[in-house]
Amino acid sequence: MNNDILQEQIAYYRARAAEYDEWFYRHGRYDRGAAENQQWADEAAQVRAALHNLPHQGHVLELAPGTGIWTAELVTMADNVTAIDASPEMLAINQAKVQSDKVEYIEADLFNWQPQQQYDMVFFGFWLSHVPPDKLDAFLQAVTAALKPDGYVFMLDSCRTPSSTATDHVLPDEGTTLERKLNDGSTYRIVKIFYEPEALEAAFKQAGMAVQAHLTANYFIYANGRKV
Ligand SMILES: C[S@@+](CC[C@H](N)C(=O)[O-])C[C@H]1O[C@@H](n2cnc3c(N)ncnc32)[C@H](O)[C@@H]1O
Q1: Which of 16, 51, 58, 174 is deepest in the core (most CB within 10 A)?
Q2: What distance in angstroms lies between residue 58's CA and the mean position of ligand 1's atoms?
Q3: Which of 12, 47, 127, 154 to mutate to test the pocket of ligand 1 (most atoms within 8 A of CB)?
Q4: How buried is 21 (Cβ within 10 angstroms: 0-12 exposed, 13-18 middle, 19+ buried)?
Q5: pTM across the whole model
């Protein structure tokens, strides 16, 4: 995949940082009405419960933490969290929101990143869908390298559900990129891959992790397991 789109993807999230949470909390262009918003919240709660079902962790590595929606969960179940994201705007919002001295923030491009140490758990939310197919195995190999023996991995991401995204976004039938808009109408191209459970499990297995993937009713796919 052309490197330009990966740079455009970083630019998109940097510019979107201040309005990012509108998506997860279903405000503005992401508001789909009370019933669908409630369904989204219920399915998110299902994933949150699966995460909190894991044992307490020592040191967790969170990749692409964004504004801290999941960092806030991780600090309640771990001794320490290292959070790596390419956007300083995202990291600043995350730090202001989570306000925990358990979290170390690192600004880095995950496509030029190799772990320098091993962690008890690696977590990434809504990140794998932005990894181009030709970089997927190298990324997952880096995750495996970042895990201690038997270390835990947990990820979640979006299903191909049109109402998951903003009302003014078009979900193409196929392809690995799509166009995203900000509230000011500016547009960006980003990578977006929607996984089915079997393909996700196979990709993790190839990289040395055994995970089980699950779908919620409409919106989310999540997977958890261990390094083998
Ligand atoms: C969809 S958001 C996910 C944020 C958060 N994990 C969540 O669940 O809300 C994607 C995140 O990836 C970050 N990102 C995009 N490209 C990146 C890159 N090349 N390296 C590191 N982070 C990147 C963005 O800044 C953004 O915070």
Answers
A1: 16
A2: 23
A3: 127
A4: middle
A5: 0.97
